[in-house]
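Example: Membrane protein.
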Amino acid sequence: MAAVEAPATVGQPEVAGEAADAASDGAGSRRAALAPVGLVLAGCVSVQFGGAIAVSLMPRAGALGVVTLRLFFAAVVLLVICRPRLRGHSRSDWGTVLAFGATLAAMNGLFYQAVDRIPLGPAVTLEVLGPLALSVIASRRAVNAVWAGLALCGVFLLGGGGSGGFAALDKVGVAYALAAGAMWATYIVFSARTGRRFPQADGLALAMAVAAILVLPLGIVESGSKLTVPSTLGLAAAVAVMSSVLPYTLELLALRRLPASTFAVMMSLEPAIAAIAGFLILNQSLTLLESLAITLVIAASMGAVRTQVGQGKAKVPQG
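Written out as C-alpha cells, the predicted fold is:
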C-alpha cells in the first residue's frame, strides 16, 4: 500500500510547483501587457507639457520657427544617441524612413500652425480625432469601437466646454488641427512599420533628420535670425526633448508590442493631459464640463488598456 501511495505524495509538490509557475507566468504576462501602456502614458505626459512650453515660445520664434528648432534639436540628440547604421538597409526600408520623416514634418508643422490660431486644448482635441478614426478602422474587435465612441464624446465636450464650442474657433486653425490629426494617424502607421524594420530607435533618428531637413527652409524664411537667440535655443532644446525625443521613442517602442487600434484609443488621453498642462503652465482653468470630458476620455483609455491586458492574459495558456 505504501508503495502505491508514494508516487501521490511525491507528485503533490510538482503540482504545487506547476501552479506557482502558472501564477508567475500570468503575473509576468500581465506586466508585459502593461509595459507598453506605461510607455504610451509617459509619452503623452511629456509631449503635452512640452507643447505648453512651445506655445509660450511662439511669440519669440513663430510657429514654423519653433517647429524647426524642435525637430533640429530632436534629430541631433537622436542621431548622437542612436548612431544609426546607414548601410545594410533595403530600398523599402529607406522608403519607410522617408515617408515617416515627411509625416513627422507635416504633423508638427500643421499642429503648430493650429495652436498659433486656436487654444492648445481645442487644438489637441481636434487633432486626436485622427487616431480615434484609425482605432475604429484598424480594430477587428467591436469593443474598441465602443471605447473610441466614448472617447469621442469626451473629446467634443472638452472642445466645447466653456469656450463657445468649435464654431467660435478660427476656421483656418480648425482646418490645420484636423489635418494634423490625419497626419497623426499616418504617424502611428509609419512609426509601427519603422520600429519593425530598424533596431532600437535607429529608424526614428533617421526619420527625424529627414523631418528637420524638410522644415528647415520654412523656419528660416519665417523666423530668420530669431532662431539664433540663446534663450530661444535653450527653451527649444527643452521642447525638443519633451515633445519629440522622449515621446516618439517611447511610442515607437510601445508600438512594437501594442496593437495600433489600442494605441490610437489611448491617444484620447492627450486632450485631458493638454488641459492639465495648460492649467499648470499657461494658467488655463478647467470648467465642470471640461472635467467631465476628461473623465470620459480617461474611462475610454482605461477600457482600451483592459482590453489589451485581457488579450495578453488570454495568450498565456497557449504559450
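Residues 56 and 72 are 19 Å apart (CA to CA).
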